[in-house]
Every structure is written in structure tokens, then in C-alpha cells.
Amino acid sequence: MPKASSRPPARKADPALQSLLDVHEAQLSNGLRIRLLPNPQTPVVSLYTFFQVGSRNERPGITGISHLFEHMMFNGAKKYGPKEFDRVLESNGGRSNAYTSNDMTVYYDDFSSDALETVLDLESDRMRSLRISDDTLASEREVVKEERRVRVDNEITGILDEELGTLVYKAHPYRWPVIGWMADIENISRRDCEEYFRTYYAPSNAVLYISGDINPKKTMALIRRYYGDIPKGPKPIPVIDAEPAQKGERRAVVRHPAQSPSLMIGFRGPRATEEETLVLDVIQYALNKGEGSRLVKGLVYEQQVAVSVMLDWGWRIDPGTILFYLELKPDSDPQKVEAALYTELERMAREGLNERELQKAKNNLRADQLRELGTNTGRAHALGHYEALLGSWKELLTLPSRYAGITNEQVKATAAKYFAPERRSVVTLVPETDSAANGAED
Amino acid sequence: MATRSRATPKTKDKSAASRPLKLPTATETTTSTGLQVMAAERGPLPLVAMRLVLRAGSATDPKDKQGLADFTVRLLRRGTERMSADAIDEAIEFVGASLAAGVSEDLMSLYVTTPAEHFPAMLSVLGQLVREPIFPEKEVELARERSLAQFANDLDDPSTIADRAFTQELWGDHPYGHDVGGTASHVRTFTREDVVRFHRERIGPKGALLVVVGAVKPEVVAAEAEKAFGGWTQPEQLELLTVPPLERLAQAGRILLIDKPDQSQSQVRIGGPGYRIGHPDYFAATAMNIALGGGFTSRLVNAVRVERGLSYSVGSYFDTMSAGGIFAISTFTKTASTREIIDVSLGEVGKVRKGGITPRELKTAQTYLAGLYPLRTETSESVASVLADIRVHGLGDDWVEQFRDRLRAVTPKQVKTVAAKYLYPQAPTMVLLGKASEVKKQLKGLGPVTVVPVSEYE
């Protein structure tokens, strides 16, 4: 698997993390996987349900269905009808929300620990017997359209991000936005949703994570009682990564009313399971974490060519995107800023990091991991996140030793490979003064 | 498979959620020059959270220098007598610690979290930042340039501009009547001398409080605080500011329509007077607000989002500060629905103002808030913040312990009283941001409308 590393990575479990993560595991005969993590410190519990479905599993015509469907999961099942899920949850001291990404859909509840059985009843009811009515679908469709307007159509980073996706990916479903195209949101049918539910929301496609003030044995018995009789689902169709190799830089210009130009730049990265993903984490920290990081210090403070710079290396199942967003000053020359960024990236490929920068990145990765594990919700989410992307939550335990083993040779090799111009896509926002020319949708 | 939602009070009494909720014991000391220190030991993570609170919020900004407190706090880390900006960044960031700083209307706060073994070093840096910043001329200029660029770019962020205008409309000339970041026209005039003076007059041990929570012994905290802050005197620090209460809303009944013609949505803000932090109405008003516009099952969410699909997000809130507060609704919708969302929202508010909420709604709100309240004490950062708030705002040492009982004691009659008092008994102030040519014609009969271009809010 690792191609760039000169030696096999150490994969030792971290003792401090191991002591924090006393996880009880099980799998029901219908395929539902269960991970319980007791922590009596405060009388609250977080429950996460991870479904292995996201915009990656969609096709043109129904883009955005995973996200629209996420909303529908709150709109009534057999036992708890429309409006009942939140009503029962809140009146028992709990709250709930969910999010959809390219790769997964995640539902979560935080609640007073004596509401555990009620929450399991609610969650298993909608996994077993969701009911989708034309009325709730029609209303929820309007809500999602408003969500799209606020996040994409009236938000500059949303517009640029959408443009960038279609540049970076030609064939892969990562091409379209998670929220979907407006016309698809308008046309997704009840039947599409029902089919989606049968395919992807079966227990065999889900994992439950419960962290907090619980008794593992009693909790396991409750889960068996509430979820045990939900039938297993069909095996979802695998997603094919048909993305062709990129043969050269890709560029797009967006004209939109704005005060300043800005830049969004994406480089095609590896998949989460590749060793280089961790090397890119180290690179991301060295380039962009904190005021003293190379890009903030260089572009914002020293050269003063950017107001802010953001770098996001988001792990994904299939090869993801290393994303840069640069907010500029009015009257800036975006080409000059681009050149300044590439100079930093080339330097990374040529020289890598000095010993202190490398150690600093590792120290911060470690500290952030501990902070993430400081809450029930953080712990449950971390287990789910790593299991969904790396295949097992236990990978989390070995991350510290794998980060610790990363060498400067790996940093240089990884930067040279991934920051190559032929992996690059660039979207430039050019401020448009004539606002009438820009008819946002409807 | 009966649901637990009808569980009897008897079972509730035995439940985990009703266990007494206690903060970790805080040890209080004072440094030789008068800085108050609170320390609470707490595991299991090998991390320490600190919050240093200074009575230098945006209400202390000079009248013609709005945003100066916020501007100053960001410059504290850009150089001290002993350390350059780079050296400060390196000292904090190398070990995996983090520093955040900001101001609210009332307070300036610096937050540090650090791996426990670096606590003494990080506390020492924190001491230097507030005691001996040098504000290099170049850093002041650069900060001003960046701020001005940010103000310009903010014009592209509809929600930010609507909020900024809303604050001005609600509070007018009151010390709370400007955004904590100020405005471009004021920030443009900031000089190094302004910042130096603000530091000399407002940032000192008088009224300051250091709270430390995490994997460190209280006696270590006391000793290290003396080392880091022992010599901190600020002879020219002014007396702490007393902010006057709000007499009446500056622009009650007025509708401000901010024109941003490229928008396909309108941002909507509606507001009126509320109450100060620590006010006796807090519990009844909070319970009432959960039912009206707090949780996912609230009347506003139901009417606006669930029933009509008018918005992705709608909510109401009380914003409380030391001298007063506001009650407000915040939402957005497509341009064509602007009037509808206002009418529906005001209709829901009117129903609660006249009729209160149902006993079932009150019970739900109480259980909901009480069930989730322990989350406020889940991390060392949140414990440090709640300890600081208790001290600074005089909430009483039993605030956390008594919170759920006080909430559960709220009666329907109390809710009716606060509903009549705060839910716009007089015409509220409204701020709308969107495509004015389409929105204005929808506003007939709502009140006087003033249209201004978005550029006024830079």
C-alpha cells in the first residue's frame, strides 16, 4: 500500500489512547455493528449512527439525494410518525442532528443518560420502518433548496467549491456537490427516496457508536431488543472509481459580484487508506496550522498578499482533494498570489521541513487528537470517522506512532508528487460589478 | 417496547440525569498585585485549559474608536518586550498549545489550552502578552490593512452585514451599539498610540481573573501565577466601566432594508429589548424561548420550516450582557417569501405573547434543557468558562449545582409574565438584507422602511 515511504510504518497502539478508548464491540446477526464506550464522568450520552452512503453513491439525475434523504429521516416512521422523532427526543432531554458528506451520512443524538432506551426506540424505529409521504417530501425539498441558496448561491466559497469539484473530477461522483444540483433536488421522487432507504439504510450498512454514561452490558441487551429484528439489507452496489488520470492544469474563472478576487485551488490527493494521507496531514499542519505556519506567516504577515489562507486536506474513501482557499484584498493580483503559493509548495517538495517544524506538526497532531477525544461526541465521532474511512476504528490507536514515524524524506516525496502542476485545478473569482448580469437561480 | 416518555417522577428521581451536578472544587488565590486566580484539577486528559478575563470589552471602546478593544487583543501576540511575534508563535505552537483571544461587549478574554507538561511555560507567555506588549508600528499597520480588507470582503457575506446593522439598530448610541469589531471608518483611524493608550487604561489586574482547569494541581497554579503575573501593576488603569442600562430601543418600529441586488435570498432579523445577564427572569424566559424558537420542535421551526418550507434555519434567542439584553429572531428565505416569513414569525410570537405556552411545552422545554445542561461541564475549557462567568457576572457559586432545579421550578404563570414582557409588546426593530427592488413592495403596512445600500455597512 505505501509507495512513497522508504520503510514500513510503525503500527503500535498508543497506550494513552488505549486507556481512553475501552471499546466494547459486537455485531448482530442482521449485520449491524456496535461500538460502546462507557464514560461515567457526566450523566450524558452521545449516540452516532454511521451509514455508508453519501454523494459518492449517487448518479446524475438524483444528485443530492443522500442529503435530501438525511432530512427525510426526521420526518416520521411507523411507530413515531411525522414530528414525533424530535418531539419525543426533546421531551426526554435530548437533541439530534445529522450531516451528509461525499462518503457517509451520520446521525447523532446527545441526551441525558436516562433517555437511552427512548433514543434506541426512536433510532431503531426509523431504521426499521421509515415512511415517506408526498407532503413531507414536498416541504423538505423547499427547506433543502433554501439551504442550497444560503450555502452555495449566496455564498462565494460555495460557488467556488462547486466550480472546483467539476474541474478536479471528470468521472467520479465527487464531481457534484453533496447538496446536489438545484434541478435534481427539485426532481427527486418519493420512489427514489424509498429505494434509497431500502438499499443504504439497512442495519448491514450501519454502525452504532455510543459513548457516555452507559452500562455496556445493559446497553447491548437493549440494542438487541430494539434492533435485533430489523431485516438485513441487500449488499449495495460498489462505486467504481473511473476517474482518468489528469494530464495538465485545469482552470476556470467565476464572475460574480464581490469586493475582492479570491482563489480556490485543488490538487488531486490520495485515498484515506494510503500512507501518504498521513504525510499530507503533517504537511497541512506545517503549511497552515497556526500563526507561525509557513503559509500564514509567509503570505499573510510577511508578503501581505492574502487576508487569510485556508488549507483543507479532507480524507476520503476514493482519492480526495487537497484544497486551498485564499481570501485576497480588493485590487489584488490573483496571479501574483498564486505564484507566491506555488513557491511555498515547491520549497516543500525540494527541502521538506526542518527538524523543528516536523516535530511541531507531530506535537500538534497529537494535541488535537487528545482534544478531539475530550467529549463523548468527539470520541464517538472519531471512532466512526476512522472506521468509515480506514476500515477499523482501531486504526485510531496506531495513528500517533504512524505520525511519529514520518520522515522528512516522505514529506519531500509526498509534496513533490501531489503538488505537481498537472494535478492542479484553479478557480479564480473575478469581481463582477454589474450585478444585473448575474441572475442567481429563480 | 413502551417508550420512556411517560416515565413517572419516581423513576426519574433515581435516574442518572438527576444526580447532583457539581463543578470540580475550585481553589481561589490572589497574586501579590491583586490578580484573582481560580484553579480546579480535572482529568483524565493530560491537558490544561486557561481563561484570562479582562474587563475591557467593546463597551470600553472610545466613542470615535469603535473596534479598538478587539483590534488591541489581536495585537497582544504580535510582540512583547522579551519576545518577537515569531518567537511567541513558536513558543505556543511548537508544543501543541493553542491561544485564542477575543472580546465580547463586556469582556476581553484570552484562552489557552496546552499539554499539561507545558503549563508553566504557557502561563508565562500569557503573562507577557498582557503585561508587556510593545505593539510594533509595523504590526499595527498590517493589522489595520488586514482589517480594512476584511471589512470590504464582509460586504459579500449577507449574514454578517445583517447582524452588524441589527446591533446598531437595536442599541443606537449605547456602548453596546456597535459590532465588537467596529467599522471600517473607525478602524481606518487607529494608530499605535490609540492601542498603547487602550492597553495602559484598560488592560490591568484590576477586575481581572485567571481561571485554570485541567491536569494540574491548584498549588502549582498559584505558584506559577505569582511567577507569571506577580509584578503586574498598571497604575494608569482606569476604574472599571459601568455600562448604563438600555432605556428604550433606538429604532423601535423601524424597518431597515439593506439593498444587495445580487441576492436570491433575504436575511431577516427582528428584535426588541430583553434583560441583563443574571436577571431573575432568566429561567422562565429561557424555558419559554425553547418552546417558541429554541429547539427543533419549537413553534417557529414548526411554522416556518416544517409546515411551510420557508427556510433552512429559524430561531429566536435572548442575548444577555451585563447591562441589558435583547430578544431576537434570526432567519432567511428566498426573496419572494420575505413578507410571508415575517408575518408567520410575528404571528407565532404574538400567540405566545397573548397565550403563553402549553403545560406540555413547558415540561418539554424543562426536560430538554435540564437533560443537556451537564454538557456545559463536559470539558475543561467549558468548566473554565462557566467558572469565569459565575465570578465575573456574580451568578452565585451554586449556579451550576442549582441550575436544573431552578429551571424545573418555572411555572406556567411565570412564563406568561415573561412572554408579555419580552415578546415585542411594542413594535420591534427589523433589519432585512436582500434585493430591495423586490423586497420593498412586500413590506406595505409593516412600518416605516428605510433603504440603504450594503456599502454603508463596511
From TrEMBL, chain A:
Q: What positions does the domain Peptidase M16 N-terminal occupy?
A: 38-174
Which Pfam family is one of those matched by this entry? Peptidase_M16_C
Q: Which SUPFAM superfamilies match?
A: LuxS/MPP-like metallohydrolase
Gene3D superfamilies given for it? Metalloenzyme, LuxS/M16 peptidase-like
From what superkingdom does this record's organism come? Answer: Bacteria
Task: Give every Peptidase M16 C-terminal domain span.
Answer: 187-365
**Which PANTHER family does the entry mention?**
METALLOPROTEASE (PTHR11851), MITOCHONDRIAL-PROCESSING PEPTIDASE SUBUNIT ALPHA (PTHR11851:SF49)
Q: In which family does this protein belong, per the annotation?
A: Belongs to the peptidase M16 family.
Under which name does UniProt file this protein? Pitrilysin family protein
Automatic annotation (TrEMBL), chain B:
Query: Where is the stretch described as Disordered?
Result: 1-32
What InterPro entries is this protein classified in?
Answer: Metalloenz_LuxS/M16, MPP/UQCRC_Complex, Pept_M16_N, Peptidase_M16_C
Residues in Peptidase M16 C-terminal domain copies: 190-367
Q: Which SUPFAM superfamilies match?
A: LuxS/MPP-like metallohydrolase
Pfam families (UniProt xref):
Peptidase_M16, Peptidase_M16_C
- The chain positions of domain Peptidase M16 N-terminal read 44-180
**UniProt protein name:** Pitrilysin family protein
